[in-house]
């Protein structure tokens, strides 16, 4: 792991001197304003000056001013996922939840940034994001706060996750490297001051949107320690990030908002003070959807005691939070010291941000001049180019040669760039076709179109056309047109599974629902599908008689806000409105196809030297926050378009622009070249052209396994990557594209890997040669595999990588290092990390499936002894299981096994030592625990009977005698009933 650079002491001294270059008689009014003092002394001083009410007021996201001390308002939470995005507007009325969107540099989505495998580049990106955040803060600190909520480090174990675009990788090590670089760039190199204060999202195991505030992620100890936690640790450990955001979900039965891990685990990773925050609205979920506490006083007290410092809830209204905390103090649920601890964490971050320094500290002079600077635009283009992954390139299809004078660019994303929920507003846009046109210049011609159907809709009864407004803001759609003129024409964008958007030809705007009324009209005014409730989605349902009904599908369920109606009808005045709860009462329409998207695409590509088909996703529709995907497939119409274009022109290149792995099986078998990019921001078109024409030699690598079928995946709610065979580490199937895959226009030869082990580090040196005539980057990847172990081990684990640039013909020896301690896994028998004595294979190559050279080392570590069940054993420390959930032992801490009838857990290689008794701590419903040997139906050696407890948290002890329990066996506990098991012993 690369440690963040620190600026030299002499520079720090100079900076500090410049901050206090004031006359001797102009000393700071208070010690907390004196930058010559340590952060700790300044915080102590300020904390001591605050009244209890003032301290409590600082616990809400919107921290009010304290005029008597000259302290301004402070807001936590500015979104900055891949550029400065939006922020809740503290001054907005009448809607305090409204947001302002920044026009700032938009970099590739996070999964694209991860695909660069280039930490140095990512640190530069993070630095620009930090600068631009500072620039906006200088204009309006009430809106653009310096506590940034980024990066997202949740692991991308399931590509159907709606927020896949927000994470970096399915691998914890790669995620840790990239997130440390991004957060380090945002926070800056000064060890005492922060440019911004990055907060890692969303701790922990938050990787599904379905019922995200009610589902509990089952994290067996190995998965929790070896996988989920390891993604969060590096950025905290290297002082790149300043806290974590507690996730919406529960883990092992306890809401993450009150997880003791926020203190007991996260704060142990650093000596710095952290400021942890809740996710938006999550404190109220504790008494609402999660029903975990009966009162807000109890909930907020538990949240503070667990390690959360700042409550993100109730928009700008801090009164419910402050009232609840005061009530908790009065009831003895909290001590003043608990409040002091949280406020100390908050004030530490504010001091480090330079708020109380003269001039705002070393970053206080950053202004709006930095936003969208020429250097930022160049970096955006470089990042977009480095993020692109060449998935396939056969028969030299790419780069496009100088003979490609006529290029056709077609597809629904050819002329469009989309933003996503956490994107800023692009200062300018270079679309794929525009980028390719600019690249060819006068040397050729570019033709093409969006390849979508253009239609008109006629109401079946009257025969009149649906008509839209021609002005920039559109107008309510009506049924009244007598001919299919421009105001009656709509372009149909098909996003798969029947979901369509309609763009009015009259003004280029999308049709959306006009308001939240039960009989809302529709208006053509949206620049793109957008907003939390995406109100621009429709399906056309066949009515069975040659007509269609139009269903509005802008909400996940029919009764969110809009009332019972989902189908469109025609009002008495001709306005198109929501007017029917079902298809039977809906208006019927005929559809006239004025031009076929496929036909227009085929016409454009026929005879072209090259055909570029740009397909992909709409980030607000094809999965996003609160909406998981149900398939990894392209939209059906996009697949049909690719096939038609490929048939018309064999020189076809497919550019897939989306945010997740896609099942491109036919395309891989039939299309000469496939290039994948995320929604890559303002410079997308330039970057695509750079790669297609060879000005940039692609070196991006996928950071997730690309599966061949949805059937390769278990339930999205299954978090056990070991048992379920998830990610490249445990998947035993054949992926479409393996983790780390990506092609280049250069060829690279790997020499023999040489491994040494000394001073606790395994070092692998391998010569890599660029054997081609073109300079290029190679991402050299080192994986390990442990040959022998007590426990199931990953097929491979990424341990190190290096993106190296090699000139044509150049050879460079790449050195990759792995600390031996990083080879450890979590030993459930003793509850600690262990490096086992074993031979470790060292696999070096261009991807997890393209290993070019290998070596091995023998590591002398430990041998895990047989289980000693005479010691108190946690039931969750099992080796295998079936039918169980992991649940909370109490609302404060602890994890238990939640059993159902016939469920079991096993404890392998246990030394029974003539055992004669079994004792367990259990709670919940009545039932039995059978102790069996060597299998869930193996020999029964004892049965404990449990009468049940009234409270699931009220544990009692049950016992049973054992017979013929001797020697070493796999011990199985088989459950007969719905009960909870905390710990047990066998003696």
From TrEMBL:
Domain CBM6: 871-987
Name of this protein: Exo-alpha-(1->6)-L-arabinopyranosidase
Role, per record: Catalyzes the hydrolysis of a non-reducing terminal alpha-L-arabinopyranosidic linkage in ginsenoside Rb2 (alpha-L-arabinopyranosyl-(1->6)-alpha-D-glucopyranosyl) to release alpha-D-glucopyranosyl (Rd). It is not able to hydrolyze alpha-L-arabinofuranosyl-(1->6)-alpha-D-glucopyranosyl (Rc).
GO terms under biological process: arabinan catabolic process; xylan catabolic process
Example of a GO MF term: carbohydrate binding
Native organism: Actinophytocola oryzae
Signal peptide region: 1-26
Pfam assignment, any one: Fn3-like
InterPro entries found in the cross-reference section: BXL (IPR044993), CBM6 (IPR005084), Cellulose-bd_IV (IPR006584), Filamin/ABP280_repeat-like (IPR017868), Fn3-like (IPR026891), Galactose-bd-like_sf (IPR008979), GH (IPR017853), Glyco_hydro_3_C (IPR002772)
PROSITE patterns on file: CBM6, FILAMIN_REPEAT
Record family assignment: Belongs to the glycosyl hydrolase 3 family.
This protein's UniProt keywords: Hydrolase, Signal
């Amino acid at each position: 792991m690369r440690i963040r650079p620190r600026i030299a002491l002499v520079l720090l001294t100079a900076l500090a001197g410049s901050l206090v270059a004031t006359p001797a008689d102009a000393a700071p009014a208070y010690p907390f304003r004196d930058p010559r003092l340590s952060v700790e002394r300044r915080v102590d001083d300020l904390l001591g000056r605050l009244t209890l009410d003032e301290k409590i007021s600082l616990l809400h996201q919107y921290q009010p001013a304290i005029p008597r001390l000259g302290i301004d308002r402070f807001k936590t939470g500015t979104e900055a996922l891949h550029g400065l995005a939006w922020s809740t507007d503290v001054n907005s009325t009448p809607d305090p939840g409204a947001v302002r969107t920044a026009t700032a540099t938009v970099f590739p989505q996070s999964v694209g940034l991860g695909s660069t495998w280039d930490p140095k580049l990512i640190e530069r990106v993070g630095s620009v994001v930090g600068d631009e955040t500072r620039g906006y803060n200088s204009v309006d600190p009430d809106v653009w706060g310096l506590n940034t909520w980024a990066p997202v480090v949740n692991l991308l174990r399931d590509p159907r996750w709606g927020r896949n675009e927000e994470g970096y990788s399915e691998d914890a090590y790669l995620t840790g490297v990239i997130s440390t670089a991004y957060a380090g760039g945002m926070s800056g190199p000064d060890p005492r001051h922060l440019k911004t204060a990055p907060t890692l999202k969303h701790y922990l195991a938050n990787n599904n949107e379905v019922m995200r505030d009610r589902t509990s992620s089952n994290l067996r100890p190995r998965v929790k320690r070896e996988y989920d936690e390891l993604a969060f640790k590096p950025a905290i450990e290297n002082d790149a990030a300043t806290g974590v955001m507690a996730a919406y979900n529960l883990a092992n039965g306890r809401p993450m908002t009150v997880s003791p891990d926020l203190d007991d685990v996260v704060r142990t990773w650093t000596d710095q003070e952290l400021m942890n925050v809740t996710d938006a609205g999550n404190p109220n979920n504790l008494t609402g959807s999660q029903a975990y506490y009966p009162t807000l006083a109890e909930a907020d007290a538990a949240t503070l005691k667990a390690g959360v410092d700042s409550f993100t809830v109730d928009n700008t209204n801090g009164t419910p939070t402050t009232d609840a905390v005061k009530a908790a103090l009065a009831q003895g649920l909290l001590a003043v010291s608990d409040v002091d601890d949280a406020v100390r964490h908050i004030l530490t971050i504010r001091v480090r941000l330079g708020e109380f320094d003269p001039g705002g500290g070393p970053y206080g002079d950053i202004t709006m001049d930095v936003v969208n600077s020429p250097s930022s635009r160049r970096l955006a283009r470089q990042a977009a180019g480095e993020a692109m992954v060449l998935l396939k390139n056969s028969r030299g299809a790419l780069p496009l040669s100088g003979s490609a004078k006529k290029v056709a660019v077609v597809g629904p994303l050819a002329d469009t760039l989309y933003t996503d929920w956490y994107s800023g507003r692009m200062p300018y846009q270079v679309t794929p076709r525009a980028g390719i046109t600019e690249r060819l210049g006068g040397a050729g011609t570019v033709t093409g179109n969006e390849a979508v159907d253009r239609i008109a809709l006629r109401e079946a009864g009257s025969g009149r056309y649906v008509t839209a407004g021609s002005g920039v803001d559109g107008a309510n759609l009506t049924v009244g047109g007598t001919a299919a003129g421009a105001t009656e024409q709509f372009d149909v964008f098909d996003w798969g599974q029947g979901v369509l958007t309609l763009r009015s030809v009259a003004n280029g705007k999308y049709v959306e629902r006009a308001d939240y009324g039960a009989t809302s009209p529709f208006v053509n005014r949206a620049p793109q599908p957008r907003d939390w409730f995406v109100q621009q989605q429709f399906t056309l349902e066949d009515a069975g008689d040659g007509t269609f009904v139009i269903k509005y599908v802008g909400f996940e369920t029919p009764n969110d806000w809009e009332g019972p109606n989902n189908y469109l009808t025609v009002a008495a005045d001709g306005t198109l409105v929501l007017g029917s709860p079902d298809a039977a009462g809906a208006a019927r329409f005929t559809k006239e196809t004025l031009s076929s998207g496929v036909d227009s695409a085929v016409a454009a590509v026929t005879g072209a030297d090259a055909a570029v088909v740009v397909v992909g996703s709409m980030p607000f529709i094809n999965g996003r926050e609160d909406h998981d995907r149900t398939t990894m497939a392209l939209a059906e119409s996009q697949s049909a378009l690719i096939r038609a274009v490929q048939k018309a022109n064999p020189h076809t290149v497919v550019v897939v622009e989306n945010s997740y792995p896609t099942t491109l099986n036919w395309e891989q078998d039939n299309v000469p070249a496939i290039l994948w990019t995320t929604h890559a921001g303002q410079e997308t078109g330039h970057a695509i052209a750079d790669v297609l024409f060879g000005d940039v030699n692609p070196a991006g690598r996928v950071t997730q396994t690309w599966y061949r079928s949805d059937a390769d995946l278990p339930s999205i709610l299954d978090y056990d990557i070991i048992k379920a065979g998830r990610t490249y580490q445990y998947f035993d199937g054949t992926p479409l594209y393996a983790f780390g895959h990506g092609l280049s226009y250069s060829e690279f030869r790997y020499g023999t890997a040489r491994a040494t082990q000394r001073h606790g580090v395994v070092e692998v040196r391998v010569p890599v040669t660029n054997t081609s005539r073109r300079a290029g980057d190679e991402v050299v990847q080192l994986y390990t595999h442990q040959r022998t172990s007590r426990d199931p081990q990953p097929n491979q684990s990424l341990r190190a990588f290096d993106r190296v640039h090699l000139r044509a013909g150049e050879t460079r020896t790449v050195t990759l290092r792995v600390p031996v301690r990083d080879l450890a896994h979590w030993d459930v028998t003793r509850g600690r990390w262990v490096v086992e004595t074993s031979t470790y294979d060292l696999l070096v190559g261009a991807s997890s499936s393209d290993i070019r050279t290998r070596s091995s080392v023998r590591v002398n570590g430990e041998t895990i002894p047989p289980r000693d069940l005479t010691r108190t054993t946690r039931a969750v420390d099992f080796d295998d299981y079936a039918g169980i959930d992991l649940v909370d032992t109490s609302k404060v801490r602890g994890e238990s096994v939640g059993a159902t009838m016939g469920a079991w857990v096993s404890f392998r290689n246990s030394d029974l030592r003539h055992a004669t008794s079994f004792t367990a701590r259990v709670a919940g419903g009545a039932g039995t625990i059978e102790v069996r040997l060597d299998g869930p139906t193996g020999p029964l050696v004892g049965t404990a009977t449990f009468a049940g407890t009234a409270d699931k948290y009220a544990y009692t002890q049950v016992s049973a005698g054992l017979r013929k329990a001797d020697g070493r066996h796999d011990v199985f506990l088989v459950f007969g009933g719905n009960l909870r098991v905390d710990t047990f012993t066998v003696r």
